[in-house]
Write a structure and sequence with these properties.
The structure holds 2 protein chains of 2 kinds. Helices cover 52% and strands 12% of the residues of chain A. Chain A is built from 15 helices and 10 strands. Chain A has a 5-stranded mixed sheet. In chain A, strands 3-10-4 form a 3-stranded antiparallel sheet. In chain A, helix 7 runs parallel beside helix 8. Chain B is mainly alpha-helical. Chain B has a single domain, classed as MetI-like fold (Orthogonal Bundle), CATH 1.10.3720. In chain B, 75% of the residues lie in helices and 0% in strands. The chains are: A alpha/beta, B mainly alpha. Chains A and B meet through helix 1, helix 6 and helix 11 of A and helix 4, helix 5, helix 8 and helix 9 of B.
């Protein structure tokens, strides 16, 4: 029996350890980048900055399910920048940039980082954090203080009932809806919306032009999209409410990433949420269904920043970025990243220097 | 937090339907068992052969350890994208997920099988050969039965590895308890996420206990404490029932050992 007893103990210990880790994980997810924020806000000396790098890498890995290593490497490289800038004695609080867990968000975050660094502002990055529900939590807790955002999505998060849909209306409503410690700087003309997208074959077969055309056939179709879109107001819920479109099933894919594209190509799903700047739409001849009832709001790219970090210098740099950035730029850069597997930060840096911001 | 998790777990609506806990648990168990079965079919014969012949040990140890180091999530996404393009859509993602889980379940079973077989007392092997058994007979009738406890310990490790990792199937749109973990994270619904993780832990412990008990009885009485119990009660038995000795192998083994 001795042997068996050892096993019971081992398993019990393992289970306890598992639960412990799990709870620790919840803690760090509710507050994903807490540890790093503490040290980077105090990080004026080289030693402290390197401390913030390592803790940042740790919590980045714990909080993001994918691309943990990218997060930490990004932290490492920009952390070095922070050290040098900090030691020049500007006395400025470092800007900690976060991003969502999809390429475009990471790309824009890298653009912000490159432009700010070029202007001599100390920056740290924590990219690839997760869904909006997760990274805004980090923003509220001060672990990050700058994020690339989309006006409509952000508005829907703070004000689920808003009916604004044009870029200016959404931006105005967003400024009112934001909590007191956060603000959005000038928005860019660049837009990237969620969409209900189908293949050309599906569109032809059922004569689909707008989302409403799905109503008679959606009952036989599976819709794809991210976990978070499944419960958002501009997701399946909005489609049912506005267009009377209810799908047979919902398959959770990635947020507009390769799985969504492949899933649509192969018929795993018949319609899916693909971001409108995704180069695959053009390459595969996908049809983005029209949204006449404005379920999807304007989604201009906008920097969301903590008021405490929005110094005049930071503001002017980010405004300059927003003024130059276009939807076509976003699509092109993502195409470059997809096709050549180029490093996102490199592509971002190139854009910054090409546009005279670096 | 604990209260929220408890509330999530005890809401009866969360247990039924296509997204209910029963359904998700069933899916989770299904992926795990298929993966472990596939891994067993691959690992047991190879492990037994290597343990028996003593050849290729280094190669297997190296391969098994390399397999352990595979980043399962990255591999899964890669395989899933490949499978979607090359296999029927209905089974593509399941196949990819089960392949990844099986790859993770192979190393513990492979190493414990060859270690179990290789560790058999040479005296037992000699005795068996002396009785005129062929190499195959020695493996099947002597070495493998003696290795059963180790085989099961490998099986249990493999099960734990597979059941814990099966959560990532949800990453490529499949079901299983990982659905709660991944959706809960993205939807900022932490009770759901933690509840899901807790259920995985429970499933791991329960399955492991079941396998431990099965393993205990699958192993020859001569190798386990059942033998000791048998010996203790011996004075109270009038005769030695022949039924319990229907398997001759343990006796051969014990005879050889003594």
């Amino acid at each position: 029996m001795k042997r068996t007893r050892i096993h019971i103990t081992t398993v019990a210990m393992a289970a306890l350890a598992g639960v412990g880790l799990l709870l620790a994980g919840c803690g760090s997810n509710a507050n994903p980048l807490n540890s790093s924020a503490g040290s980077s806000s105090s990080g004026s000396s080289g030693a402290q900055s390197s401390g913030s790098q390592s803790s940042g890498a740790g919590s980045g890995g714990a909080s993001s399910t994918a691309g943990g290593s990218e997060t930490s490497s990004g932290t490492g490289s920009t952390g070095a920048g922070q050290t040098s800038a900090g030691s020049t004695g500007t006395g400025q609080q470092p800007v900690v940039i976060g991003s969502a867990n999809f390429t475009e968000s990471e790309l824009i975050a890298d653009i912000y980082a490159a432009a700010l660094k070029a202007a001599g502002v100390p920056v740290t990055t924590h990219l690839n954090i997760g869904a909006r529900e997760v990274y805004l939590q980090a923003m509220h807790e001060g672990s990050i203080n700058l994020l690339p955002e989309y006006t409509g999505g952000l508005l829907a998060y703070y004000d689920k009932t808003s009916t604004a849909h044009s870029p200016t209306d959404v931006y105005a409503a967003l400024q009112k809806a934001l909590p007191a410690d956060l603000e959005v700087l000038k928005y860019s003309a660049a837009q990237d919306q969620d969409s209900v997208t189908v293949t050309k074959a599906t569109a032809d077969k059922y004569h689909l032009v707008s989302i409403g055309d799905l109503a008679p056939v959606a009952g036989q179709m599976t819709l794809g999209g991210s976990s978070e879109w499944q419960t958002r107001a501009d997701g399946p819920i909005g489609m049912t409410k506005l267009y009377g479109v209810t799908f047979k099933d919902y398959k959770v894919l990635d947020p507009g990433g390769p799985l969504s594209v492949k899933g649509l190509q192969t018929g795993l799903v018949q319609a899916t949420d693909i971001f409108t700047t995704n180069p695959a739409i053009e390459e595969d001849g996908f049809v983005v269904l029209k949204d006449p009832k404005n379920m999807f709001q304007a989604q201009n790219v906008v920097p969301l920043i903590a008021k405490s970090a929005a110094t005049p210098k930071v503001t002017s740099v980010l405004d300059a970025v927003s003024a130059k950035l276009t939807t076509a730029d976003l699509t092109d850069m993502q195409k470059t990243i997809n096709d050549t597997k180029a490093n996102v930060a490199d592509v971002a840096g190139k854009w910054v220097s090409q546009n005279g911001l670096g | 937090m604990i209260g929220d998790i408890w509330a999530w777990l005890t809401t009866s609506a969360h247990w039924t339907g296509a997204d209910g806990i029963w359904q998700r648990t069933l899916e989770h168990v299904e992926y795990t068992l298929i993966a472990v079965a596939v891994a067993a079919v691959i690992a047991l014969p190879i492990g037994a052969l290597i343990g028996h012949t003593g050849r290729g040990t280094g190669l297997v140890a190296g391969t098994a350890n390399a397999l352990r180091a595979l980043p399962s999530l990255g591999l899964l996404v890669m395989l899933a994208l490949w499978a979607l393009g090359h296999l029927p859509v209905g089974i593509a993602l399941q196949t990819a997920s089960i392949a990844v889980l099986a790859l993770l379940a192979i190393p513990p079973m492979l190493t414990s099988t060859y270690a179990g077989v290789a560790a058999v007392d040479p005296a037992a092997r000699d005795a068996a050969e002396g009785m005129g058994m062929s190499g195959g007979q020695v493996l099947l009738r002597v070495e493998l039965p003696i290795a059963v406890p180790l085989l099961f310990s490998g099986l249990r490790s493999a099960y734990l590895q597979a059941v814990a990792t099966a959560t990532i199937a949800a990453f490529v749109s499949l079901g299983g308890l990982g659905r709660y973990v991944i959706d809960g994270l993205a939807q900022h619904d932490y009770p759901k996420m933690a509840g899901g993780a807790l259920l995985v832990a429970v499933l791991a412990v329960v399955g492991d206990r079941i396998l431990a008990v099965v393993g205990h009885f699958a192993a020859s009485a001569g190798l386990t404490s059942r033998r000791r119990l048998w010996a203790k009660t011996a004075p109270y038995r009038s005769s030695y029932p022949a039924a319990s000795l229907s398997e001759t192998q343990p006796e051969v083994v014990n005879a050889a050992r003594q």
